[in-house]
Amino acid sequence: MIAYLGSLITEDRRCEKDVKRRIDIARSAFIKMNKILTSRKISIDTRKGLCVCCVWSTFLYDSETWTFAKIATKALQAYEMWMPRRVLEILWTERKGNNEVLQ
Q1: Residue 28: what pLDDT?
Q2: Which domain holds residue 46?
Q3: Half-sphere exposure of 66 (CA within 13 A, CB side)
Q4: Which residues does residue 9 pair with via DSSP β-bridges, in sequence order?
Q5: Class of residue 23 by CB neighbours under 10 A (exposed 0-12, middle 13-18, buried 19+)
Q6: What is the rounded radius of gyration, in angstroms, for the C-alpha atoms of the chain?
């Protein structure tokens, strides 16, 4: 496995490790901005814009080279729902569906 220009290159050319690594990097970026992104004093639209600008762009860096398998797709979808649930402070015990959260 080799790190080249911010992405991991493996011998088998799979992207699961790179996707998981990018998720970890984006989560740490989110956690660093947690007070701002979960603040009730800032409008939801502004918080969403900050997420897209600072966190989502960190995650999607070099994503055009990924070849998706089922595992990587599930990890991406899980992270895609984790971020709005954290911004809106929706607990997993509230049992809200993904479509309801995205609306």
Answers
A1: 92
A2: 2-102
A3: 23
A4: 2
A5: middle
A6: 15
